[in-house]
Design brief:
It is a single chain. With 440 residues, the protein is an alpha+beta fold. The protein has a single domain (59-435), classed as Up-down Bundle (Outer membrane efflux proteins (OEP)). The protein is 68% helix and 8% strand. It is built from twelve helices and six strands. The strands form two sheets. Strands 1-4-5-6 form a four-stranded antiparallel beta sheet, with no helix packed on it. Helix 4 crosses helix 6 (132-198) and helix 10 packs antiparallel against helix 11 (330-395). The radius of gyration is 37 Å and the shape is elongated. 28% of the residues are buried. The model has no long low-confidence stretch (mean pLDDT 89).
């Protein structure tokens, strides 16, 4: 091969190994249509659920949380960000490319029979020292680990939104049933009071009070119906699917039927919460970055073999390029040390924040759980009083109006019990969020 052909050959080899650009346009109309077609029978979703050992038969909080992890754009964005960070591992593992230099020269005066052209190709081969490549790769691996844990934290945030939306929908539906019963009782009481007022047995004031209570119940029922109407839309948005996909399935609210006892497992949040582990990984990445900057004190070597053809003579060369590290990379090392210190403080601050969240959430859950227990006792007492009144009515000792009043009191107690239970379930959700784990 002629020396003049060397650069052409190298250029061809380099170009044939290049990665070609692949166009990937997106369309707002297309993405909107794809979102509208999402459903809980999606084949990809079924595969995702089976991979997590979950069935698609019962759509409870945990199942829908997995659906949100599959569909919700926040989680999808976190996965894409994690993939972007992980792609840097390949960059960190790459060795620096050698540099080929070709500098032909022309002499205006020919010497004897020799060509006036002089050819001097050479190659600079960089050699990294002090294990820089391994330290760079270690930093990229730690950064990718932190990004993966942020995906878990984002998935838990999606689960929290799903649980809150389901609890709101559950509360609205239960309230509608209770308030419809109470409204019927108020209507019945007003009819009986009207009859007794016409007979002169009760005053108009009692009838007015009964009507005011009926109006309050009607307004409360209207609020519950409004929340039920928007609840499904809120839940669908929390999952990441269109609302019509949610209307086609039966929801399982059994998770809200009981209040689990708080266990000592919440302490694990101080060491095992996803966002905390992500910060630990970020600290490890900062340490790796410091090691890399310290390694950069030691200069890399460039070995430069070359060739020169001059006046019929073939001359081989071997050069060495070694930067003189006068500054010892002190500036970047100081910056890396400061970033490591910042990463440490960020981890400690988050750990302290989690400790406060746990203490507040645990106290709130214990207090609201105690309140729910008292509300349950009051509801039982109201049922007992209604049963006693019924026996007295059957015996002819009191009027039927008294039974209706006791039944209204029972219904009101049940509404208050539901409110206390929902408050406790909300507190349970806050405690689970502080733990990033479910109460059992």
């Amino acid at each position: 091969m002629k020396l003049a052909h060397i650069p052409i050959t190298l250029a061809v080899v380099a170009l044939t190994s290049c990665v070609s650009f692949q166009s990937h346009p997106i369309s707002a109309e297309q993405t909107s249509a794809e979102f509208a077609q999402r459903s809980l029978s999606d084949p990809g979703l079924k595969t995702f659920l089976s991979e997590h050992k979950a069935s698609s038969g019962s759509w409870n909080v945990n199942q829908l949380a997995l659906v949100a992890a599959y569909f919700h754009p926040d989680v999808a964005l976190a996965r894409a960000e994690a993939d972007e960070v992980a792609a840097a591992i390949k960059t960190a593992e790459m060795r620096p490319n050698p540099v080929f230099t070709f500098m032909p020269q022309f002499a205006s005066q020919r010497v004897g029979p020799f060509t006036p052209w002089f050819f001097s190709p050479n190659v600079a081969i960089p050699i990294e020292t002090a294990g820089k490549r391994s330290k760079r790769t270690e930093q990229a691996l730690e950064a990718a680990e932190a990004a993966r844990w942020r995906v878990s934290a984002r998935a838990w945030a999606a689960r929290s939104r799903v649980r809150a939306a389901m609890l709101e929908l559950y509360s609205a539906r239960r309230n509608i049933a209770l308030l419809e019963t109470e409204q019927k009782l108020h209507d019945e009481a007003i009819k009986k009071l009207t009859a007794q007022m016409e007979a002169g047995n009760v005053s108009p004031f009692e009838l007015t009070q009964a009507r005011l209570m009926l109006n309050r119940t009607r307004l409360a029922l209207q609020d519950a119906q409004r929340l039920a109407a928007t609840g499904e839309a809120r839940l669908a948005a929390a999952i990441g699917i269109p609302v019509h996909a949610l209307k086609a399935v039966n929801l399982d609210f059994s998770a809200f039927d009981s209040l689990p006892s708080p266990s000592g497992s919440q302490r694990k949040a101080l060491t095992q919460r996803a966002d905390l582990i992500a910060l630990l990984a970020e600290y490890a990445a900062a340490e790796s970055a410091l090691r890399l900057e310290i390694a950069r004190q030691y200069p890399d070597i460039n070995v430069m073999p070359g060739y020169d053809y001059n006046s019929g003579q073939n001359r081989w060369q071997l050069g060495l390029n070694l930067p003189i590290p006068l500054n010892r990379n002190r500036g970047p090392i100081a910056q890396a040390e400061a970033r490591r210190a910042t990463a440490e403080k960020r981890f400690l601050a988050q750990q302290a924040t989690i400790q406060g969240e746990l203490d507040v959430a645990l106290a709130a859950y214990q207090a609201s759980r105690a309140k729910a227990n008292i509300a349950a006792q009051l509801a039982e007492e109201a049922v007992g009083a209604a049963n006693t009144t019924k026996r007295m009515v059957d015996a002819g000792d009191v009027s039927a109006l008294e039974l209706t009043r006791r039944q209204i009191e029972t219904s009101t107690a049940n509404v208050a019990l539901l409110a206390a239970q929902i408050e406790a379930q909300t507190a349970a959700g806050a405690l689970e969020d502080a733990m990033q784990a479910t109460l059992k």
